[in-house]
Amino acid sequence: MISSNKIKFIDFYRKILRDLTKASLFGAGLSIIATLAMVFLFGMELNDYLTVSTTTSIVVDNSSNGDFLRIDFNIRCITFL
User: Where does the sequence pass through the membrane (predicted)?
Assistant: First the structure.
């Protein structure tokens, strides 16, 4: 099992040099939680960056006097026999 002295060594948030301070379990726990949160957030952002998503939307805009705007679609259908 891991001793509390080894866990205290993980304390990242010491304000003064290591020789002049004492590590605490609270600081080590905070360091571990912060590291896990940063790794989780980095992983989520990397996953979102690497995910390919395509969206298609068509929005019909009305003219200023309320008339409808005419839109023509040219659709080609290619069939292979």
Answer: 20-42
The pLDDT tens digits for 6-56 are 777 766 666 666 666 677 888 888 888 999 999 999 999 999 999 988 888
The maximal CA–CA distance of the chain, rounded, in angstroms, is: 83
Write the CA distances from 66 to 61, 69, 80, integer angstroms: 10, 9, 44
The domains of the chain are located at 4-50
Predicted TM-score (pTM) of the model is 0.48
Give φ, ψ of 46 to 5 degrees.
-65, -40
Q: How far is CA 72 from the centre of its chain?
A: 40
